[in-house]
From TrEMBL:
Keywords: GTP-binding, Hydrolase, Nucleotide-binding
CDD domains named in the record: Ras_like_GTPase (cd00882)
Source species taxonomy: Bacteria, Pseudomonadati, Pseudomonadota, Gammaproteobacteria, Thiohalomonadales
PANTHER family (UniProt xref): ATP/GTP-BINDING PROTEIN-RELATED, GLIDING MOTILITY PROTEIN MGLA
Any one GO molecular-function label of the UniProt entry: GTP binding
Domain of life of the native organism: Bacteria
The family this protein is said to belong to: Belongs to the GPN-loop GTPase family.
Pfam families xrefs: ATP_bind_1
Protein name: Signal recognition particle receptor subunit beta, a GTPase
Cited InterPro entries: Gliding_Motility_GTPase, Gpn, P-loop_NTPase
Keyword Nucleotide-binding: yes
Amino acid sequence: MEHKLTFAGPVGAGKTTAIESISDIEVVRTDAGATDDTLLRKARTTVAMDYGMLNLEGGVKLHLYGTPGQERFSFMWDILAQGSIGLVLLVDNCREDPLADLELYLDSFNSFVQKNAVVVGVTRMDIEGRPGLNAYHSKLAEMGLNLPVLEMDARERSDIKALLLVLMSILDPTLKR
């Protein structure tokens, strides 16, 4: 059995890093040199997708697709979300307005969010503690959504695993952690 998950979020939120942290195969990356405001954050950025795979018990394969973070590549967001059973939305707490980023991505994936499982991972809270997780929950409530929000480090396999376990428990509440 094979399933697909999509990772989305703004530039620098940790999508590529998260997929690399959890993937059982070498991640396929489509990086290119940054040429716009992205260059202020990092030298290279995803322009099409990242791809990794996680092998689960019983021969189940979880295909992991990371979207580009730049809005100019948003046409890829819908393409990569097709056939996905869930969305991992990563938000960088160090960005100028991470709550606006949260809203932008949830609005962009609105039709997907209404029908599928979604979990929010907030990265870089160790560098910038505000807004706190309560602010994210308040923003989600304002949007009429009740989604799990976890603080996480995209470099830590255990953090990505926890995020995926929460997502999987939404998909199948009978799963044991």
